[in-house]
């Protein structure tokens, strides 16, 4: 009796060990399953604000394709990518997921995505319907297409109109700010004037107490270097002609050693030293947008996906101004676009692709537009979104203007994005904390470039 | 232990308690094999757990430390390259320093406070309610404790900074400043763990026979003298155990950092465990992460060995 049980127990243990070690071998990316166009497919996204819009799309999609249902799961940005990667390794990733430009190169390298070219040709998807440049961002180094664009975003200045009025700054002045790395231009003047200390003295007045500031001219959510400064300084550094990498997409050499970038960062860090922007150490654990909502900052630079949040603060008279003009009289904004990708391990490839094509069609993107949360990728849909924002009394021209004037530049698309972020974030943090000069970024840049050397 | 030695056959002492149940069996040899089966049966669950959750992952982790592995795809053997890179990685050395700072602050404070609390429990606070209350922080999940303090110590809205301001002093960026971030986290974990550590030491105090104290007082020993000459030396085995366990535990600090500063400001709280997590899970470099983990494992093994060896933790002076 005991003997058999003991053998049984050992056998169970051995089997479990085998199972464990074999599953850790992982799914190396082949689409093993069939390509059924029926059943339930899973879809992941991270932005809770957009969930209702896409739920509506899913319902409409099932109405048109009764064989297919879509199960949507929303996971916050912080956990989204590790959950997704773990899902890919263990074979439980969603059939379709919202994809990001800084992340998809790593998925390509490990063959986790399905190329959509054949389906797009077969189903006659019109790639020219999307805003210029968006569709081609999703073409890999192998020349194949791994996502259909769903939306885009640019950067602008959210500001407190009452504070601006009190400071005597008109909306016209806010709309025509200039900037340079030497004296900060009228942008710094406005920031300084909007800064008020505990005694009511403004940042540009004599006797201003920079250690006891009540309202900061510019809010600070951190160095943002993990996102290549997307919402915090890239709209300034790009006006100097600086680019993050040697080429984009698929750059292999970073330029954080360039003086133009280092001057920009030095200027930006100087705002904290002058008391116009919170010190980095005081912002740990704080949320910059909420501080703005609490009236502790007059200006926040941020992305268009934040419009909903900034307009939701009660008692704040919100204005949205375009980013300042740079030394050469031009504005600049990072242009980022999300897409939907199909996971290579899907068991329902045809249904998954069908859903991606639906997400990339006017039928779904008009629904997204009507909810006024983001700008859809399709040109006509993003115009509808602008109208929907207007209907809510939000003027979004500061965001759309960048696209109209072609003053956008693409988010850097490279391999090793998460490793680059791991190196650059502490490096730029140290600069804005005042612990190191911007010239220290040269050493970090060497580390980053070494990632591409091997 | 002592009851076992009273059994007639010392060689069978380990099996002795079951002897009566097996009295009916015909021969001793057969009984031995029967016991082995029974033993295996009882050992099996723990063995399965050990193999599944310790042995296999450990061996696999050591293997992965010699590979380049991104979790997707297959590990690629690269020899000792990860270790060579770690030797030249400033963030590794930074992590080592930061972790050491945390361990020293945490252990010194925690052990001193716990010893004090244990003596108070032993001598003064005889009420179970008070003894239980000391354990309360330990019952709180680490993450909750960390978030609670993160909130109370917040620069802008934290109640502690509010109080500091009322007293006329400038606010302190407990988590935001590079000098304070590690001491703050070490103090939070000291607060959380000292009750538990005190309980362990308290158990040790109770094991010291009263006769020793009586002899000391007859010889005219003062309270302080008794503490240094009698209590502390006799507590040594317990203190060593406590030290080994708490040092290993505090080298592995992770959750407090992960939910508060996430390695920052700059690199001030990028402790070893967090750096391992960052390299492996955020940056998908499981080979490098595994190599860091192996190094942490070796450090802990050496530290534990030194502590056991030089503090003679496995011997008691009571015998």
From TrEMBL, chain A:
This is Sugar ABC transporter substrate-binding protein. Belongs to the bacterial solute-binding protein 1 family. Residues 1-24 form the signal peptide. One of its GO terms (molecular function) is maltose binding. GO terms for cellular component: ATP-binding cassette (ABC) transporter complex, substrate-binding subunit-containing. PANTHER family: MALTOSE-BINDING PERIPLASMIC PROTEIN, MALTOSE_MALTODEXTRIN-BINDING PERIPLASMIC PROTEIN. GO terms for biological process: maltodextrin transmembrane transport; maltose transport. Keywords: Signal, Transport. It comes from the Bacteria.
